[in-house]
Amino acid sequence: DEVIFSGIQPTGVPHLGNYLGALRQWVKLQNESSPDTILLFSIVDLHAITAKQDPKQLAIWRKAMLASLLAVGLDPKRCIIFAQSSVKQHAELMWILSCSASMGYLSRMTQWKARIIDRMMQNWSADILQSKLALPENASPLQHTANKDAVKLGLFSYPVLQAADILLYNTTHVPVGEDQAQHLEFSRDLAIGFNHLYASENSTPLLVVPQTLLSPAKRVMSLSSPTKKMSKSDPSPKSRILITDSNETIHSKLRMAITDSIEGVSYDRGKRPGVSNLVDLIYHFDESAAASPEELAADMKDLSLKALKERAAYKINLGLREIRSQYGELMSGDQKQLIERAEDGAKRAEEIAEATMKRVRNAIGMGL
Ligand code: AQP
């Protein structure tokens, strides 16, 4: 049977990038997969603490993320929605896998490098930024002594935790964007290596080797610097639209969105990143309107940029209205219900995780 697993960090309320790049895709998978498919969606809070987190804020965001996942249309009757930290087996399998994960392999992964540098810039800005600038393009961020002190072990090894997340559930398919494909390859290699080391010949496979389910690229860019991706942890709130933003907020953030001084609308992500990002957003919220963002841009070529922003705000608000109201109800309604949902998800996830861990413990000589 198919098992689909994916996760999102509780580092803020999801924005349009998270929604179009991941959450909307998850809902689609839920609605289109066969009833035998097991779907797991995790709020990966252990990953969130690889960046500095305020504990009170993290507690709020964990809850907000659960409400968001339900509000976008994930159905707890159909999928298992749970917080990573409430299933202890993630940390256990991570340790075991880290004993066979190569440091060299880890440091060569490009997405990992980008995240390390990203996190460093959030946590230790000025001096570390300096050391990043002194770093040759293709060097490992760890070559610099200052970075070695700044990069914490958890951040260094997060792809191993990601592998544990996936492998615990006998996952067959992981929906990811192109940028995460390398990490999935790492998880596959860890699973193959582990099976090779420990699986006895006639037993069922110890760890299932997952496949990538490449999501169509939908990179939503920041509204305030459109060559960067929209991100939860960007210090500027007006750089992103949250799935819970009010109609007024959506309009005002779009009015302030950075575009360019070229007249009219055209689509060119390289030359007109701001305008193209807005065209993409309109297209993704109204895919029936045109066959492609290019075609949509051609249809709107005579619009002023002010009118383009107005149209984007209108379409986005229309697409988020229902989600926003669901979210509001969940966050202001009976909190017992949210807690029960979280506990129920964790229980169901743990059952699968524990069965995997029994196999793993037995295989490595730590069974009862
Ligand atoms: N701008 C984006 N466009 C398209 N997809 C995006 N995703 C994130 N930003 C965009 C997708 O959202 C999913 C969940 O991401 P995550 O929370 O695990 O971490 P992230 O990718 O690092 O997202 P953020 O919002 O930038 O969070 P922070 O600031 O905490 O790092 C992933 O599937 C991701 O591809």
From TrEMBL:
A molecular function (GO) held by this record is: tryptophan-tRNA ligase activity
Q: What keywords appear on the UniProt entry?
A: Aminoacyl-tRNA synthetase, ATP-binding, Ligase, Nucleotide-binding, Protein biosynthesis
Name a single GO cellular component.
mitochondrial matrix
Organism (species): Ampelomyces quisqualis
| Record-stated family | Belongs to the class-I aminoacyl-tRNA synthetase family.
In short, the EC number is 6.1.1.2
Under the heading InterPro entries, the entry gives:
aa-tRNA-synth_I_CS (IPR001412), aa-tRNA-synth_Ic (IPR002305), Rossmann-like_a/b/a_fold (IPR014729), Trp-tRNA-ligase (IPR002306), Trp-tRNA_synthetase (IPR050203)
What is this protein's record name? Tryptophan--tRNA ligase, mitochondrial
User: According to its UniProt record, where is this protein located?
Assistant: Mitochondrion matrix
Primary site of residence: mitochondrion
The record's listing under CDD domains reads: TrpRS_core
GO terms, biological process: mitochondrial tryptophanyl-tRNA aminoacylation
